[in-house]
Amino acid sequence: MHAHSGRTARNFMSHEISPEPILQVGLGYMASKTLLTAVELDVFTRLAQGPCERGDLAGALGLHSRGAADFLDALVALGFLERRGTEYRNSPSADAFLDREKDTYVGGVLEMANSRLYPFWGSLTEALRTGKPQNEQKHGGDVYDAIYHDQAGLERFLNGMTGLSMGMARAIAEKFPWVDYRTVLDVGGALGCVPVAVAQRHLHISGGVFELPRVRPVFDKYVTSFGLTDRIAFHGGDFFADDLPTADVIVLGQILHGWGLDEKRLLLKKAYDALPDGGAVLVYDAIIDDERRHNTFGLLASLNMLIESAAGFEYTAADGRSWMAEAGFGSTWVEPLMGGYSLLVGIKGRPGAG
Question: Its Gene Ontology molecular function terms (predicted)?
Fold first, then answer.
């Protein structure tokens, strides 16, 4: 006992190790909840109108005086706000991505994280011990009924998924050789941010989204806002029950991770069948590195699938490429997108690996 304590003390004294990384991760929920609450309170949308004195800002947000200064200054320390004296303004990144009035707003996914995922993650231990979801399904509910129970809930979810996908959509519009194709279909594509981004950058491209019919009114509003109703169409249906519409490129964005292995294989086969020879399937998820050591976000996202779904999981690039080969795709490759996400590409009818 004494010898062990001596070794530990010597390590501390020599600065070979530090508890700081442990404490940063272990107490990371504090920073997370501070940001999520700021989004919930519309701090960043309010400050997008202009700088504001602390007292006026606290009053506008309905904050009690006891916690207001600490809350706002914590957002300064975290890098989301800037302060001069007692006047606050958004940081450049918060102004660009957390003002709900801008089309670059990514706060929708944070709103969903705050209202749903944050409390569910409190049951991670139970999920790991039982292998069962810890969301609405835990008490006999249905996750989609909970999300889509009213129009406001539906729009929050769809806007959240769009915010999460926005950066990937722009990267895909730049990285993939769209000059070789003319049409794109985003399966389960929510509001259609991928085909919109592609159509904006490549004027020869037209396409659409294949989604549940109830999504259409929100989709129409989104696509109309970009003036693309003549090039981006809505196709209503269920991607398990129905055949997929044909297109030169089919996108499966943040779809495969939500399902078990059999469903993953089925969706890739459906995409293969709907593509012409030489057509491409584009899959993007938080794909885990093949050694399962480095993509922290991908591994945590897979735990989120444990909490949120009956059988879903993230997967490695090697896994995805093998499933594509089983479906018939002759050429496959993977490339990074952003923030732990990667793009997995499969080409129909071209032998050889990319």
Answer: O-methyltransferase activity; protein dimerization activity
